[in-house]
Amino acid sequence: MTLLEYADAEMLALDLANVMAGALGAALRQQPRATLIVPGGTTPGPVFDDLCAVDLDWDRVDVILSDERWVPEADAASNAALVRARLLVDKAAAARFLPYHRAGQTPEQALPELEAQVAPLLPAAVALLGMGADMHTASLFPRGDALRLALDAQAPALVAMRAPGQAQPRVTLSAQALVASLSLHVVITGDDKRAALERAQGLPPQEAPVAAILKDATVHWAA
Ligand SMILES: O=C1O[C@H](COP(=O)(O)O)[C@@H](O)[C@H](O)[C@H]1O
C-alpha cells in the first residue's frame, strides 16, 4: 500500500483526478475501450468534479460502480445518481455508464444479467474506491451476509450483500474484481478514516474488509 497525504481535500481531488486520467489515457492508448470503477458515498464528488473536465476519449470509457444501494436513482441514497450528477457531465458525459439497479427485481434476481454485462468489462483500467470508518469498502461490510463469498478468490464479479445497520440491500464488486484493476486508488478524508485505515492493516479482511484490497492500492488522504 502507498499512502499519499495532501494539504487539503481540494489538492487531493485535483491530483487524484490527474492520476486517474493519466492511467485511463495510458490504457486507451493500448486498447479500444477502458473500464473505470467508481464509488458512491459522500467522499468522491470533488474528484468527479475535476475528472469530468479532463480531455480524454471518454466515448471509449465504460463506467461502473464499485457498489450500489438497491434503490431507484430518484432516491438520495443512489450511488448511480451521484455518478450521473458529478461525473457523467462536461467531457465525461460521453462515457458509457452501466447502472446496476433494476426496478421490480431483487439484487439476486438481477445478478445473472448484471454479471453477464459486468464481467466482460473487467479487469478495470482504473478503480477508485471509498472506505467507511467501519473499514468497509465498496459494499464489503464487516458482518455482511455474503462477505465470505465476496472475499473468495473464485467469487463472481458481483455479489448481493446485506449488512447490519444498512437500510438497503446492496450489490458489490467482489474483492477479486476490485484488486484485478490495473490502477487501484482509495480516497479517504478525516482523522477517523485515517485511524480506521491504520487499524485495518493489522486485521483480517473478515473483520476489516478494506484490508482485502490494500496491498496494491494507493490511498489518498486529506484531513
Ligand atoms: O456506502 C458506501 O460507503 C462507502 C464510503 O462512503 P463515504 O460516504 O464514507 O465516502 C462508499 O465508498 C460506497 O461506494 C458506498 O456505497
From TrEMBL:
Its EC number is 3.1.1.31. Pathway: Carbohydrate degradation; pentose phosphate pathway; D-ribulose 5-phosphate from D-glucose 6-phosphate (oxidative stage): step 2/3. Residues 8-221 form the Glucosamine/galactosamine-6-phosphate isomerase domain. CDD domains: 6PGL (cd01400). It holds the Pfam family Glucosamine_iso. It catalyses: 6-phospho-D-glucono-1,5-lactone + H2O = 6-phospho-D-gluconate + H(+). Gene3D superfamilies: 3.40.50.1360. One of its GO terms (molecular function) is 6-phosphogluconolactonase activity. Keywords: Hydrolase. PANTHER family: 6-PHOSPHOGLUCONOLACTONASE. Hydrolysis of 6-phosphogluconolactone to 6-phosphogluconate. Belongs to the glucosamine/galactosamine-6-phosphate isomerase family. 6-phosphogluconolactonase subfamily. This is 6-phosphogluconolactonase.
